[in-house]
Amino acid sequence: MKYNPHNYQEYAKDFILAHPVCCLMLDMGLGKTIITLTALWLLALDYFDIGKVLVIAPKRVAEDTWPKELSKWEHLTGLSYSLVLGNQKQREDALIKKAFIYIINRENVAWLVENHSWDFDTVVIDELSSFKSNKAQRFKALKKVRPKIQRVIGLTGTPTPNSLLDLWPQMYLLDVGERLGRFIGGYRDRFFKPDKRNREIIYSYKPRDGAEEKIYELISDICISMKAADFLKMPEKINNRIEVSMDQKERKLYESFQRDMCLKLGDEELDAINAAGLSNKLLQMANGAVYGEEKKALPIHDRKLDALEDLIEAANGKPLLVAYWYKHDLARIRERFDIRTIDTAKDIDDWNAGKIPVALIHPASAGHGLNLQAGGSTIVWFGLTWSLELYLQLNARLWRQGQKNTVVIQHIITKGTHDEDVMKALETKDYRQSALIDAVKARLEL
Q1: Residues whose CB is less than 8 angstroms from the CB of residue 214 and which lie 6 or more positions away in sequence, other chains included
Q2: What share of the chain is helix, strand, coil (3-state, %, to 5)?
Q3: What domains can be seen in the chain, in order of their start residue?
Q4: How do residues 318-357 score in pLDDT, each as one tens digit?
Q5: pTM of the complete model
């Protein structure tokens, strides 16, 4: 297929060429992969500026999206690749194969560093935000070989899915601490102050006054960002809340557990040992069931199931993509409805072909690089997640370029519960994410 780039794609490609370290913070659907591959082709086969390239990506994206893009476009002819996936023998054989680009899933980065003589001068990190933890093995491994790398290209749509603290590890892999400091402790002390704490134990930090603007300013020379709505004709998107209410007995159980952090349900004892455990179990109760001992699901109510039944009936055959979070959600939904889960490539093909009227999907398995917009335009969040990244990524499976219908995102919320807190937190984090995107946004005259 012939590649006819948009102006913003040309701009982003030129930005990669001009910056040995850079980060493209591009919205889902703007073509991060083809932009990067075009730049790599020029660097490898026209300028002869790079040798071996390592692409690090989520597993499904590594085995599907990157190979498909390399095979799809005429102008990438000659840019050979090797997939460093599978068992150890398959990965070792792939590394021996002669190619320009070697594609590996992020879970095997530590193995690669420990078992391979490093000879990659260029590294592309697809979904850079997955390196947001400085304690993760993948970060530590890449940090070890970072001095041997000449070019690093970071790609992400959500650079700060939870906190501005997430930025430091990502920027360190780009510039080795030149902009935000060489140590996360120094970065934290400079730009943040303790937020929630219990005496000497600090649980969270919040930015100091003016810190956000200063951080954005420091990284703006190596980062560009673009929103899909600015450059593509995006479909209309409507966010709805479907509120359900527990009855007096159910609410009494919820409020008792919320207050005491322990509860007796029949013969089962339910307890939360800390705030995180309490949050988790309150969200489960809001969904309609909660895990007791030995992972036994204890029923609380069917309010969300009733709301989902109403939505399915109202859809009248129009496809619905239902997002669940807990395994007991999956079990209870399946018990009540004839619903198919999206797990395999066949499931994806059948959904896009319109063969699945109601599909279940877990946000963690439906993220980066998955195209589902052909199969439907309505998402129902049966259970919410604290992860802004997973929330945005799943919504972007349907709300993206190529979607022909208005996208409706339904959130089933149990009133007066932790659901409302999570919804508010997602909206707040989305605002902060937008602030970062806007702060380093590429101003193009199109």
Answers
A1: 191
A2: 45, 20, 35
A3: 7-231 (3.40.50.10810), 233-245+302-415 (3.40.50.300), 247-300 (no CATH)
A4: 899 999 999 999 999 999 998 999 988 788 889 999 999 9
A5: 0.75
